[in-house]
Amino acid sequence: MVRMSWPTPANLMAATFAATLATVFVVSKWLSSPKDEWFYEKEILWPGQKFGIQMAGPMLVDTQSKYQHIQIFDSVTYGRVLVLDGAIQVTERDEFSYQEMITHLPMYSHPNPTSVLIVGGGDGGVVREVAKHPGVTRIVWCEIDEDVVKYSKEYFAKTMATAVDDPRLELHFIDAAKFVKEEASKGRKFDVIIVDSSDPVGPAETLYTADFYKDMQRGLTAGGVISTQGECLWLHLEIIGRVLGECGRLFTQVNYAFTTIPTYPSGQIGFILASNATSGTVLGAPVREPTPSVQAQMRYYSPAVHRAAFVLPQFAETAIGPHRKAIA
Predict the structure, then answer these.
(1) What pTM was computed for the model?
(2) Is the pLDDT of residue 26 over 60?
(3) How many helices (H) and strands (E) does the chain have?
């Protein structure tokens, strides 16, 4: 027979305290584990709301470049994520809906684009999409922040930065507003200009000015097309209307389209398209279509989606419709 010895009150208190500490340690460890960490955006352009993504591990990159705060991490459900100054720029799960539309809307609105200027887009996604067009012989990429490109090559090499070694590509690390002005003054023109910029704060602020659009207009060939990141219908109608109004004074055609993308504010973002064409180019419908082999590479864009992207909900059409401009 084993003789039982009952704990003294002091021993009981000590055991209880130890068990409590162990429980706190376990709970604290669970709460601080990477799979329970969430990243929430910080952005002044959409006050009162923020988007969160569950992280799958610690930050892979968390550094301050000369121009902005760069963060990269793996998420639980959206793949790898790039963040600039607290705002999500791309995730591997949904980036194609933005990259394909900002690129192929202008590219397939032009009958034969051979020279393309890409402003921004340091993740390499727009370069990837432009490189799908075999008729393009010259791709000029202008990005202000060399660190964004460097980290994208390292961390998005198999998803977005897949065409950075294309022989048609020229990469310049320079302020885009200055570059476009210099190119225009030298008479170097492009069939398509794509402005994949962040929001109109920080290093991208100069890309939303009337002077920048004037320089782009001067930098287009006859019949050329521009496509710029056009903010969110739910949040930025005033900004969109102002930029469209400026474009209407410079271009013969001005239009607005949008795409859906879960990780951008309100799940949507738009594109401002403009052209100096008087014939041959029609914004709002493709003037040519992808070959079957190219279309097979698309995950969002199609000729049908191209046309549909310009159909806006009534509240947005009421505000934006008066700024649309088409050739007679």
Answers:
(1) 0.87
(2) no
(3) 10, 13
